[in-house]
Amino acid sequence: MNPAHATVLLWVWGCLQAFEIVEKENIFQRTPCPAFLMFDNAAYLADMSFELPCHCKPEEVSAVVWYYQKDLGGSHTKVLTDFDGRVLTEESQVRVGSDMLVRFSIRMFSLLVFRAQPEDSGLYFCGTRKGDYFYAYDVDVQSSEGMVATFKDQGQEPFADEHHGSLHIFTTFWEWTPCDRCGVRGEQWRIGLCYLRSPGLSPRYRKTVPDVVSCGSQAVPGKLRAWAREHSPELLVQSCVVPCEQKAAREGFVAILSYVSKLGSPPWVPQVPIQFHWQRLGHGLIISCPGARPEHAVAWDKDHQYFYRTQYLEGVNRSMRVFIDHGNHLHIRFTQLSDRGIYYCWRQGVRVAGLRLGVTTRGRYQPSFSDPETRSAVELTLIGYLFITAVFVTIHLCRCCCYLFHCHPNFSS
């Protein structure tokens, strides 16, 4: 490509970007802000990332500020802004358990919250630096800890709806994910979140269906939330089989390597990028799939062994040493020598990465309170000391009581 063609392409690209910005501004001109602030209800599962668009704003406002309140009219308000030189956050840089103030980003007036937690549930306001609000959301992030899995291949059915007078509690399922593997038997699932229908909901919260909101919405009165807390999210799983797409270019590349090789057998060429990791014997390991989200179809294999959720999903068996959690992470508790091998990760039906795991009995291990195993060891040690102390004090109290009653049977004399 000569410099003239490159200049023309850059000019066209700049024009398209300017057109996109103009279109965005025209949308704000056509969408007037409501006179009375309403809240759009939205529900997500824990560890998901979500985007809240600011659908309306005055034309003179060039940058927005987002505000967060746990409850309407609360005294504590978090200000979410990218002013003062704040660097935009990327989802891949977010750590689990970090505060929301380092897990958000504002792009084109929209608020992005990465790896949301149940503590992030509440009200989000789009406004100005002076505190003028234009648009608002009622966000409900439901925890996956009590999530119930239902396997259709085993004849299981989702939970039945609950009826408590005029209160109707039910599960709303998302669309089925793609098959998590190709060429072999795979699985697909759909996430179901808790919703309820009641005539006594606050009219200030905008609903997609009349009188229906998510169970953790601020529109639900306090007396009804106790019923809603007992209805946990659900996961519906079923088997599937889909063919793999042929990759002629990759097969041709392998054929060339086989021809060039002077050995008796062709060289081993990994089909996906593979990382190497050494894990100390007896310690736990959590493996994440690159670019995967909780709503994605993710599968795990070890060499030629398939980890199906029917057997390896968290909660299926409490004694499992290897399991998959609801965030699509693979957990290995108390690593053993038999865990050595290559662990492959599938995302949306395509194998995308691998991890060659080696187990060693050598090396120094630096304990840290950020390590869950170190925290568990400290907690068990403290509990043991407290138990021994309680037994020691109880024995001495019993001895003192026996001494007093035996040596002084008659206190009046």
Structure overview:
The protein is an alpha+beta fold and 413 residues long. It has 3 domains: 114 residues, Sandwich (Immunoglobulin-like); 94 residues, no CATH class; 91 residues, Immunoglobulin-like, CATH 2.60.40. It is built from 5 helices and 23 strands. The protein has a 6-stranded mixed sheet, with no helix packed on it. It starts with a helix and ends in a 6-residue tail after the last helix. 25% of the residues are buried. About 4% of the residues have low confidence.
What key phrases describe this protein's structure?
single chain, 413 residues, alpha+beta, Immunoglobulin-like, 3 domains, six-stranded mixed beta sheet, 23 strands, 22% helix, globular, Ig_V-set
Range of strand content: 25-35%
- Number of separate helices: 5
Give the strand order of the largest sheet, numbering strands 1, 2, ... along the chain: 4-3-7-8-1-13
Total E-strand runs = 23
CATH architectural type of the largest domain: Sandwich
Radius of gyration (CA) equals 29 Å
Helix content: 10-25%
- CATH homologous superfamily annotation of the largest domain: Immunoglobulins
Largest sheet: 6 strands, mixed
CATH class of the largest domain: Mainly Beta
Q: Calculate the mean pLDDT score and round it.
A: 80
How far from one another are the termini? 114 Å
Unreliable segments of 5+ consecutive residues: 6-10, 18-28
Membrane topology: Single-pass type I membrane protein
Domain Ig-like: 267-345
Main location: membrane
Subcellular location: Membrane
